[in-house]
Amino acid sequence: MLKITEPKKVLCIHDLSGVGRCSLAVILPVLSVMGIQPVALPTVMLSTHTGGFGAPARLDGCAYGEAALEHYRELGLSFDCIYTGYLGGEAQAALAEKAFDLWPSAYKVVDPVMGDNGRAYTTVTPAFIDRMRQLCRRADLILPNATEAGLLLEKPLPDPLDEAGAQALADELAAALAPNVVVTGLQLDKYIACAGAGRERFVVKKLHIARNFPGTGDLYGAVLIGSLIQGNALSAAADNAAEFVALAIQKTPYDQDTRFGVWFEPLLPRLCPLREE
Length: 277
Description:
This is pyridoxal kinase. Its EC number is 2.7.1.35. GO terms for molecular function: kinase activity. The protein has helices spanning 24-33, 62-75, 90-102, 126-137, 146-153, 163-176, 216-229, 234-251, and strands at residues 9-19, 37-48, 58-60, 81-84, 107-110, 115-116, 119-120, 141-142, 181-188, 191-197, 202-207. By secondary structure, the chain is of the alpha/beta class. It has one domain: UDP-N-acetylmuramoyl-L-alanine:D-glutamate ligase (3-Layer(aba) Sandwich). 43% of the residues are buried. The mean pLDDT is 94.
């Protein structure tokens, strides 16, 4: 029989896209099936993600977020982890900062969403990048992709990148910004890799699959955080996350429209923890 224990709570400060398998639409089911209680705080609500569906319907979540945080404080809720993702501007960055202030003992994870594929998003300004650096300095763990690592460090990345360069990049971020770092989406020849630094130094490599989907970074982050909360070391959590994302890509049929994301749902039982009495 399974031994039932009170689930850990994670405050998830991310956007919510109705269509496209990304952000909260991915994070909530993954954490739930891993035996963790996610508490959603949408920074912005979108009818679809912004990658190929045209201009989505959009509703800013700042006012709601402020009220929700205050309500949670009044209720005396506590969170084991705070996980931030897409922040649509400095006002939304302030939401994350307020959450950090209200629950200082929570494990703080920042995914500094600012760009991908070598380019910053059009809404990202130098002032916002600086604000994101400040948020990263308050985190226990940051999860930038390769593009975001370059933005945070204000430098271009070596091209091509080798394993030693990937490790050096993670080391530099750990020295400058946060005690623990995992840099994702690093192209190393025929591999896609993540590099970790801080308490552990590691490079995890998986064979590169030449298909691009939205939401795989969110899927990776959710599995990694779930694995950490389950008691895994960061290197093991990073490997678990990379393996799950790779499998989700492999299991998504080639004739499917990539805008809708990977078919991760049939794989969720693989993440369910088994506890014996």
